[in-house]
Amino acid sequence: MAKAMRHFIFTAAVALTLALGSSAEAASGPGGAWTQWTAGNDVSNIASLQRGAANFMGHCAGCHSVKYLRYSRMSADLKIPDEQLESKLLLPGSKRNDYITTALAPADGEAWFGKAPPDLSLITRAKGTDYVYQFLKTFYADPKSANGTNNLALPGTAMPHVLSSLQGVQAAKFSEGEHPHWESFELLEPGQLSPEAYDGFVRDTVNFLDYAGEPVKAQRQSLGIWVILFLLVFTGFAYLLKKEYWKDVK
Questions:
Q1: Do residues 208 and 53 touch, judged by C-beta distance below 8 A?
Q2: Is residue 170 within 8 Å of 187, Cβ to Cβ?
Q3: Do 100 and 68 touch, CB atoms closer than 8 A?
Q4: Which of 48, 66, 73, 178 has the fewest CB atoms below 10 angstroms from its CB?
Q5: Residues 198 and 227 reside in one and the same domain
Q6: Is the dihedral of CA 25, 26, 28, 29 positive or negative?
Q7: In angstroms, rounded to a whole number, what is the distance separating the alpha carbons of residues 163 and 198?
Q8: Are residues 211 and 229 in the same domain?
């Protein structure tokens, strides 16, 4: 039994080492440094979530929905005053108890972009926050594309770079060879925001989408700390009880 257990632990350790090595190689491989960019968002940061909500409603809600989230829930969770919600965040024709949907008809989306823009309620849960962050940062000019842009995270994306007025227009430089990979970006036209400010804009937007995918995430994480502490204390009492029961057993 002991020999089998040692073999199992050794096999698991080897598998974990190989997996970590493969992940590190993938991160520094053909994708380039951009694959290591991380969102670093925090769903407990209410100010960031408020900015992200404004970013989403101002730049994304024209085409994308977060159909599992109500305006009223967003307002309560993010501490947005009702008057501010109604004057700045409610889409035309929407009420505070409505779900956040888009007015863009799927047929129009298919006609304009080749496919209907997806609902983004669960995008961070499906793809991860880092992917969405990388996607919004890696648009580049591509004359061969139907909409004039392309994306490193999602090559051939049907989505145009709707944030180009903020980020600017950038060209991607690729290496020579049979399997070219990305090396750097060159800014062709500056945007309204500096690179640092644009990173903050994207991070806040990703933070809001992370919240929209699981509005109770911050509460769950906070509660999880207390659950772990309870289990540790309970384990301590259980150990003391075990010692009491077994103290007379030789």
A1: yes
A2: yes
A3: no
A4: 178
A5: no
A6: positive
A7: 9
A8: no
Per-residue tokens: 186: 């060159």
| E strand spans, 71-221 | 99-100, 139-141, 149-151, 168-174, 182-190
Number of domains in the chain: 2
What's the CATH code of the domain at 205? 1.10.760.10
Q: From CA 95, how far away is CA 32, in angstroms rounded? A: 45
Of 44, 42, 79, the C-alpha closest to 219 is: 44
What type of residue is 4? A
Predicted local distance difference test score (pLDDT) of residue 31: 59
User: What range defines the domain where residue 105 resides?
Assistant: 33-215
Q: What are the structure tokens assigned to 196, written together?
A: 């640092």
- C-alpha to C-alpha distance for 52 and 59, rounded to whole angstroms: 10
Are 138 and 233 contained in the same domain? no
C-beta atoms surrounding 132 within 10 Å: 22
Specify which residues 139 forms β-bridges with. Answer: 151
β-sheet bridge partners, residue 186? 171
Residue by residue, DSSP assigns 97-134 as: TSEE--S--HHHHHHHHSSPPPP-TTHHHHH-HHHHHH
Angle (CA) 190 172 137, round 5°:
65
Q: What is the pLDDT of residues 34-47, one digit of tens each?
A: 999 999 999 999 99
Tell me the two tokens of residue 89: 């965040």
The structure's pTM equals 0.78
Judged against a pLDDT cut of 80, whether residue 216 lies above it is answered with: yes
Q: Give the number of C-alpha atoms closer than 13 A to the C-alpha of residue 19, restricted to the C-beta side.
A: 6
**Do 40 and 158 belong to one domain?**
yes
Domain assignment of residue 175, yes or no:
yes
